Amino acid sequence: MTKTPVTVLGLGSMGSALAGAFVTAGHPTTVWNRTAAKADPLVALGARRATTAEEAVRASPLVIACLTTYEATLAALAPVSLTGRALVTLNSGSPAGARRMAEWATSRGARYLDGAIKNVPSAVGGPDTLLYYGGDKTVFDEHLDTLRVLGGDTVHLGEDTDLAALYETAVGGTLLPALVGFFQGAAALRSRGLEAETLLPYATKWFEMIISVLPMLAKEIDSGDYSNPASSVDIFHAGAAADLGLAEEGVDVGWQLPMHDLVRRAAEAGHGDRSIAVLTELLSVGPAGSSTTEKRR
To answer: N or C: which end of the chain has fewer CB within 10 A?
Structure first.
């Protein structure tokens, strides 16, 4: 069976992993990077080096752009004709950035699909590695077997070109607070001469508990019914002082203050006896810039 030729633009750690997966799977793979030397290991594996982005795009019907941002992708492709090409972007950026990219790409003759990789470079090609896409379903369907080379859990979210970026930013919002919470705990233990590794069994159990309650919280949010809480706003409000008390152990807890302020505002708005999931309503801002909380009380 003939494998679809693929071009990969951008050979950072993730782009190199993508190109390597295609080469290993037997796809004729053309690679391009502004710093040409980054292609050397891939060329040694069997990839073909393009000297310009235009040459790289001409080489394959399927073009995967894994540059840092949409702006970087636009800059790289600015002089290039995309007529007849399927362009897939796998970079960081906002939903608005994805919409602008889609408009530009289609105006240049491309069929466009925007995607996101929900794992680290070393997981590329794994059977459980998740990639999701939004945009032209015909591109997704036509190249599904090729895209699955990058990860076995490959999903099309819908025809809207910004859906992958929307879900990426929605899910990604949990990462830094979770990591900083772990780092704060590690700092607290270190102040007592204890190793961060001793925190792992208990932090893991805590994350498992959080995972277990997400379906219940999602149901509350989707229904707008916060009246039967497992954990109320008042419980979190009362616990704020204890959270901040960790400062007495020599830990900077200032990063928590905006979150505690959000809980305080919810309590003052009369939501104290409602589920903590009601914070979603305070975070939802209508077109006029006002909170949508009162619309769903």
So the answer is: N
Annotate 143-199 with DSSP letters as a single string: THHHHTTS-SEEEEEES-TTHHHHHHHHHHTTHHHHHHHHHHHHHHHHTTT--GGGG
CA–CA distance, 98 with 260 (Å, rounded to integer): 33
Three-class SS of 4-57: CCEEEECCCHHHHHHHHHHHHCCCCEEEECCCHHHHHHHHHHCCEECCCHHHHH
Closest CA to 117 of 129, 109, 128: 129
Residue 94 CA to its chain's centroid (Å): 10
* Each residue's pLDDT tens digit, 96-120: 999 999 999 999 999 999 999 999 9
Name the pairing type of β-strands 62-65 and 6-9: parallel
Which three-class secondary structure state does DSSP give residue 131? strand
Walk across the sheet containing 48-49 and list its strands. Answer: 48-49, 29-32, 6-9, 62-65, 86-90, 111-117, 130-135, 153-158
How does strand 6-9 pair with strand 29-32?
Answer: parallel
Residue 86 to residue 37: CA distance in whole angstroms: 26
Which residue from 27, 240, 56 is spatially nearest to 146, judged by alpha carbons? 27
Q: What is the DSSP letter of 26?
A: T
Looking at every residue in the chain, the average pLDDT score rounds to 94
Whole-model pTM? Answer: 0.85
Largest CA distance in the chain: 66
Domains and CATH numbers, the chain: 6-170 (3.40.50.720), 173-296 (1.10.1040.10)
Kind plus residue range of the DSSP H or E element containing 86 = strand 86-90
Q: Give the integer Cα–Cα distance in Å for 7 and 61.
A: 8
